[in-house]
Batch of 2 targets.
Target 1
Amino acid sequence: MQELKERILTEGKVLPGDIIKVDGFLNHRVDCALMMRIADEFRKYFDIDNVDLLLTAEASGIALTAICAACYGKPMVYAKKAKSDNIEGGLFKSEIFSYTYKKKVTLLAAKDWIQPGTRVLVIDDFLARGEALKGLCDIVNQAGAELVGIGCAIEKGFQGGGDRLRAAGVNLKSLAIIEHAEPGKIVFRDDE
Amino acid sequence: MQELKERILTEGKVLPGDIIKVDGFLNHRVDCALMMRIADEFRKYFDIDNVDLLLTAEASGIALTAICAACYGKPMVYAKKAKSDNIEGGLFKSEIFSYTYKKKVTLLAAKDWIQPGTRVLVIDDFLARGEALKGLCDIVNQAGAELVGIGCAIEKGFQGGGDRLRAAGVNLKSLAIIEHAEPGKIVFRDDE
């Protein structure tokens, strides 16, 4: 998606530890008009009429996913990252490693809200090593739901998480795949 | 807002500890079409044309706020609850007590994304003791920004946080104020 790539080039910052900071438009301040255009772009790759539910993980995936869900007229669920008193009863759980927080995190989703057979589109803002997405796919699987696909805004291609998901047969579309990043230089993978 | 009150009555559950669970449509599974109607409802109480930015706190405020921001054509910022490696540089910080997690939490927002003079509408899904909102107001104040008002979906009126904010002169509108809650019985405050 050309507009997204241009925003990454003009506003993104590459920080030590292969962190690509785009918190001015994606995951701290959120350019909600851009998110609506990203939602439109995903329509090219996924048959939204055959999606029942959008699924993401808190916290940074929620804004984009909520806007996509509103645009599509679908409900969403966000998996939570820590057990709070407000989640009772049956839960799907998947343990992942968070490279952002450098610790194990358990993704939780209430069984009530993902029924067997539900056609689920997973959405996330960022794909790096793919840990969060693996956890979300695991939850879809535990629920006996159907994974329609995964839509990501930005993928760090050089960290391999996206290619591992593709190799496993997942219908994954990232709108900007970064192949190489160093301060002052970001290179995207060629689109097909 | 009658529709929201009816959803609370038909789907809400009162749990021990004065917890009102509405995670089937507001803050785990999210009914995004309802969120769009809530966004419309807020328009009755706030002059959206004179708002520059919507502000909320992660994680449960993000979905509603993102959808409001998309409907209004405005950007949003969500304050983060823990320092991650992806936030560098200058931060506004406000320490609050989270009754959900029973510990102190620091709300963080990057100084870059809330400029002095910005007209800020704070949005949240839930208002109980008002700790998160106090923290967000504090951040608006630190930024030298202007608090236009606060819009909440659900307020637990009996916990007093909303009335304290009103007494302090804040333009606060909650769309459903719960005055009394026990299992099987939820009573709303009369609308004006």
Target 2
Amino acid sequence: MSVLVVGTVAFDSIETPVGSVERVLGGSASYFALGASYFAPVRIVGVIGQDFPQDYLDLFTQRGVDIQGIKQERGDTFHWRGRYHEDINLRDTIELHLNVLAGFEPQLPDSYRDAEYVFLGNIDPVMQMEVLNQIRRMKLVVCDTMDHWIRESGAELRKVLQRIEMLVLNDSEARLLSGYNNIVQAARAILRMGPKMVLIKRGEYGVLQFSDSTVFATPAYPLEEVFDPTGAGDSFAGGFMGQLARSGDLSQGGLRRAIVYGSVVASFTVEDFGVKRLTDLSLPRIEERYQRFVQLTDFHS
Amino acid sequence: MSVLVVGTVAFDSIETPVGSVERVLGGSASYFALGASYFAPVRIVGVIGQDFPQDYLDLFTQRGVDIQGIKQERGDTFHWRGRYHEDINLRDTIELHLNVLAGFEPQLPDSYRDAEYVFLGNIDPVMQMEVLNQIRRMKLVVCDTMDHWIRESGAELRKVLQRIEMLVLNDSEARLLSGYNNIVQAARAILRMGPKMVLIKRGEYGVLQFSDSTVFATPAYPLEEVFDPTGAGDSFAGGFMGQLARSGDLSQGGLRRAIVYGSVVASFTVEDFGVKRLTDLSLPRIEERYQRFVQLTDFHS
């Protein structure tokens, strides 16, 4: 089964305590698509400007990502510039230029409309809804969001929440959306807004997943070197959805294993700048680290 | 096998967003001893003042804790007053009166000197060393510490680190002691200071355990209500050491299961103010939550 993602395709300029890069390939859809590409065919929906280099598009096609849904518009590509602190969990946005992303109206190629595994990356809930409205058959819709949309587009986001199976967000976004400080109470409140499942990303601390009747908690893969945390959450989602599409297993166990695959993909992502690490992986290397994750968390043997 | 703990026996005055208590039983040795008491016989070493009520001593003896090693001195008992923020992970110390704790010279009753499982609670490293020097047979020595001792008594702490098997501390203490921001690098640096194992407590995010050749990561038990986080770390250590003494299993698997037992005990502790929850538990209730922890983290079935 293939996976469809809508989100940003961007230039990222990133500064971390160990180095910096200028105008590298970034954006939620890019990280997601590359992360998912090791598991299943991926279709991407997004917008780029005239300044977007063919090399970056080639990165997608080399990984088997279908880029028919990437629209090129007059103007410049979305550009984000961020700086990470000495404590790599903290970052500041230095510049944000929406450019062609402002006013983007996602239009799905006809070949995309039978998508079954759909990821609504972190963009305007209005655009997320437009994508949903163009898809004929959906098996699993997972949605990401961020503080900006929770604050500025709450009503639109609530409508999206009623049409998805799972919301993915981080601790502070969950607190903001729900109004609860306690993360379990926050998750329960979000479940009451519509989604059957909530997945809370806690960065280097791992993931919590909630449904009405189940809770799953798992740590993150501990890393000795984190070069650049950018895209960790989106590539996590890519590994997660990719594994679900590969296995077709939407049981609680299947979802949990997919969460661990997502954590493994994210652990690779942060080992180098931008999407670099996501372009030279292989499924056997992912499987190898999955097995190390199993050993890392096992307390039965 | 019995467990020996040296640490503080105190009055705690605690304010959290949901309530407050005045001069309740507190201190690292108290939380440890009560937490461990469900698993193994416990011997406690500490000091109290003349103002310490018999009722609090009775709490220990009712739980089968041997209090021969608690010395009563002229003066007042150590008193800590703290206030937790709306974000319950943050707290301020409002008052700290060492009282009889200043100048305390631990003296072990003769019956304590064959202790095999020893926990050096968070007190002056000089006092920790005095205890070590009085014990004849040690199978496992685990030591806790805090930012104050790392800053003020670094040299003495380093000497203790060379005589213990495991250091237990939290994220920020590990960073301070090692000089590394990355938690894996911090743990590796601490291992080079002497202990064979380092256990890093991350509060609601769980625990990381490191040795030269192994890493174990486990989440915390997610709780819908946290009334009072005081003593979570010490009762974690109590459950951990208690389980080790009960099982006698110091294999990597045995250590990991003991970490999970510790997490379970800590999850009970924070459900009520002070040591209250630790006085009315039972081993079957602990075992029941241990099984829920197994389900919570399982991604194999």
